[in-house]
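Glucose-1-phosphate adenylyltransferase, Slackia heliotrinireducens. Tokens?
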Amino acid sequence: MSNRKRSVAMILAGGQGSRLGVLTRLRAKPAVPYGGKYRIIDFPLSNCANSGIDVVGVLTQYEPFVLNSYIGNGAPWDLNTSTGGAYLLSPHTRVGDVGSWYAGTADAIYQNIQFIDRFDPQYVVVLSGDHIYKMDYSQMIAFHEENGADATIAVMPVPIEEASRFGILATDEAGRVTDFVEKPADPPSNLASMGIYVFDWAKVRRYLEDDAADAFSSHDFGKNVIPAMLGGGERLFAFRFEGYWRDVGTIDSLWEANMDLLEEGGDLDLSDNRWTIYSRNPDLPAARIGTGAILGGSMIAEGCDVEGSVLHSMLFQGVSVGSRAQIVDSLVMAGAKVGAGTDIQRAVIAEDVIIGEDCIIGRAGADLAVIGPGAVIESGVVIAPGESVEPNAVVSVEA
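Tokens:
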């Protein structure tokens, strides 16, 4: 077949991300902003482009509009080629089908078997769309080939107290998986699946069909397909990843992952031109820093206009900060406006928020305050630590 590809990547990007609260009320988790100029989905897309995988299916479901608009034809990630591309794949129906949402991670791939078959790949790389990391998938594919594997799972050790959140593996000395249990209450080890898989397509295709026919299945890779392959005697191997990787599934973890970028010599280097993280960026002028501004330990994206103080914080694109305002240990996302005299500490301010003058938002050493996209905080309002404001809400002193 003339359009045959050695590898096709499928990014699972339909997650609701409910633990991110007001930040994901109106968009899928992979569309959440990160790092001043990126969205979370930029990382798997850029990893695919840098790894030489040019056919990428992006499986969307929950609130897909923002994500679909952002990805477009894949041009920012060099995925708009004549022989490849970024394809947005939502749940769909066929003749005689009642149709349904993706019932699980395995069902999402199963529903797109026809799409994958168009490219007749030898390997399918299944990825999560909501993790922050840099990985060369070609190295994982090479490891898969060297071991004659049917499935390869990227793994890394995690703190044992967090292991119950992950699929946990046991391996022999050669790295072959001998046991796998999804999110165990009492984890037998701390070797965790990262939700990154390489499969022989012909092999896993049969398991996906069997799983789809099982009315009692959760149709999930970790709960069903991986254990079925292991029980069927297939060759499963663990590919140990060494590097920065974060599952930004909560407000705190998202804030921490952004704060990591402010540390000198941090583990995630976004300035490394050998492995660029690409994104879709608006055309904005350079940031303007006023004569009275005070900056320290912060990242300021293009288009910002700063008159106040910004300390150990991150301003995304197009943010304005009025005179006498102070922002400390906080994230202020694209297009937000912070009025004069406002004090923001340990807060996450989403896109296009308008904050009036002399407000107090959050407090040092306390739980994060979170303001949802498009909210308006009128002058003089106090937002307590741990408080969240819904998207597009208007908060006044009287309220």
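The chain has a mean pLDDT of 92.
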